[in-house]
Design a protein that fits this description.
Layout (H helix, E strand, L loop, with lengths): L2 E2 L13 H8 L9 E5 L4 H12 L3 E6 L6 H5 L3 E4 L5 H15 L4 E4 L14 H29 L2 E6 L12 H21 L4 E8 L6 H13 L5 H14 L7 H12 L6 E4 L1 H12 L2 H12 L4 H12 L1
Parallel strand pairs: 1-4, 2-3, 2-5, 3-4, 5-6, 6-7, 7-8
Helix pairs in contact: 1-5, 2-9, 4-5, 5-6, 7-8
């Protein structure tokens, strides 16, 4: 049976919301289970996280743009919701549905996101703004709406799924990585703001994971920068992703890390997985910026020398 909750607009009235706050504050949701929200739940890390939380006894509200893609989760007992992080009214309706059904929010896993890859010169600013809207501002709006309930409870845990791309960089990843660098700083500030209220904030940083994210990212990158002056860089980047893809870890590696972040009494501020991601972050910390640039250019992307030569000609012209 699919756990479906109908979409509705939050009531724009001055009605007393005390019953909802009382339900949140007494520590017992209507189902008798703790309540978790997971965004980007239609595939990959989000789907695996919903299944892990359901297995752990949580009442789970799964949000995504593609509701039909979450039927499996509905059959497992999750509540399914349409959620578009670029639309404020969708976010507001989503939180209203969760509170109407469960009366509280114990865990919020912000997993939804995508990568708008391409050369800075060639990515339209409208695409860059959409990247920030989903990966940062939509996430922030959802947190803003969840926090009054969490504060009333005196407890809660927010898990922001970032990326190792929030600590390192790569050619053609400027807008995606800018969104993740921003999320890292946002999460640090938020963690300190919410500590007095018994609410914790944890960042999970995935490395290479087998999901729909990479193929979609590569396709968009090639559409944006697959021709013109950045073509060879884009082709090499696509080739690297193609070769590394089969060696990427399964989403379960991240859903397990999220489960730890949700359930451990005193979570770390950050969890990195898989091990290859830890190695990459260690390499970044051990090298200067220029040395890390050299590693990216020479080892990861193996940029053709003629590109560098052509760049030198442009500078000399």
């Amino acid at each position: 049976m699919i756990g479906w909750v109908g979409i509705h607009e939050p009531a724009q009235t001055n009605e007393d919301t005390t019953p909802v706050l009382k339900a949140a504050a007494n520590g017992v949701p209507p189902s008798g289970k703790k309540t978790a929200i997971v965004t980007g739940a239609s595939s990959g890390i989000g789907l695996a996280t919903v299944l892990r939380l359901l297995k752990g006894g949580y009442e789970v509200h799964a949000g995504a743009r593609r509701v039909d893609a979450m039927r499996e989760l509905g059959a497992q007992g999750a509540h399914l919701h349409h959620l578009d992080l670029t639309q404020p009214e969708s976010i507001e309706a989503f939180v209203g549905e969760v509170l109407a059904a469960s009366g509280r929010i114990d865990v919020l896993v912000n997993n939804a996101g995508y990568g708008a890859y391409g050369a800075v010169e060639e990515v339209p600013l409208s695409d860059a703004r959409a990247q920030m809207e989903v990966n940062l501002f939509g996430l922030a709006h959802l947190i803003q709406l969840a926090l009054p309930t969490m504060r009333a409870q005196g407890s809660g845990r927010i898990i922001n799924v970032s990326s190792i791309g929030g600590r390192v960089w790569s050619p053609l990843g400027a807008w995606y990585q800018a969104s993740k660098f921003a999320l890292e700083g946002f999460s640090d500030c938020l963690r300190n703001e919410l500590r007095p209220f018994g609410i914790d904030v944890v960042v999970v940083q995935p490395g290479g994971i087998k999901t729909e994210w990479a193929p979609i990212m590569v396709d968009n990158m090639m559409k944006t920068s697959g021709t013109g002056p950045y073509r060879e860089i884009a082709e090499r980047a696509a080739e690297v992703h193609s070769k590394l893809g089969p060696h990427a870890a399964e989403p379960k590696v991240i859903s397990d890390a999220i489960w730890t972040a949700v359930t451990v009494k005193r979570p770390r501020s950050r969890y990195v997985a898989p091990f290859s991601g830890k190695v990459f972050l260690w390499l970044r910390s051990a090298l200067s910026d220029r040395a890390f640039d050299w590693v990216l250019g020479s080892l990861l992307f193996n940029m053709p020398k003629k590109i560098q030569a052509e760049s030198a000609k442009v500078k000399a012209a």
